[in-house]
Design brief:
The protein is α+β, with helices and mostly antiparallel strands. 47% of the residues lie in helices and 17% in strands. It has 4 helices and 5 strands. The relative contact order is 0.11.
Length: 202
């Protein structure tokens, strides 16, 4: 027998939430691994069908979860990836500008190298952290993610946030992250406008 309910308190970073049954009764825990077919990421308010089971501590748990189709016969579509496209264009435009400034002699050649290496490292850390969140493994702290951005990895972090839907909706994290982005933009602008090129010569 399958029950039907609505997802509530879904934490996409950690990959779990709860389901409130339509007919009343016990609210059950739902993990992303309980979805039999994952055509998209679950979201708060999704209507699902599931089998009610019990864990070792006797708590209700949903298993064999399926998305309930809309009357038109299709599940709700994922939002269009405008956020990912905009983030990628912004990050790549910044990197292109840095390279152009090196070419015209405004920045040292090590600057784009540091940004690129830091961005690749940060992108990988975000990917591993997202995987860890979904599989209940050891996580990176938010401070570590922000420090990587501060060290020049913010372009990679920006793309990773939108691609993996990781830390992109947490307001406090985003405020700190965008402060770091603005700090980098201001620092590069100050270097280009005020510091003589000779200071960067090796």
């Amino acid at each position: 027998m399958r029950d039907q309910g609505r997802l509530t308190n879904w934490n996409d970073d950690k990959g779990f939430g709860f389901v409130t049954p339509d007919q009343g009764g016990l609210r059950a825990f739902v993990h992303i691994h309980a979805f039999s077919v994952r055509t998209r990421r679950p979201r708060d308010g999704d209507v699902i069908t599931y089998q009610l089971t019990w864990d070792k501590q006797g708590r209700p748990r949903a298993e064999n979860v399926l998305f309930r189709e809309t009357p038109a016969g299709k599940a709700k579509a994922e939002p269009e990836p405008h956020g990912l496209l905009a983030a990628s264009l912004f990050a790549l435009s910044f990197m292109a500008a840095i390279v152009a400034l090196v070419v015209i002699g405004k920045l040292h050649w090590l600057v784009p190298v540091v940004y690129l290496a830091s961005s690749l490292l940060t992108f990988c850390v975000y990917a591993f952290d997202k995987s860890a969140a979904m599989n209940r493994r050891w996580r990176q702290s938010e401070d570590t993610l922000q420090i990587l951005s501060l060290c020049g990895g913010w372009p990679g972090a920006l793309i990773a946030q939108r691609l993996f839907h990781h830390k992109s909706k947490k307001a406090s994290f985003q405020v700190n992250f965008w402060f770091i982005v603005v700090l980098h933009l201001a620092a590069v602008t100050a270097v280009v406008l005020r510091i003589p090129r000779e200071l960067f010569d090796t």
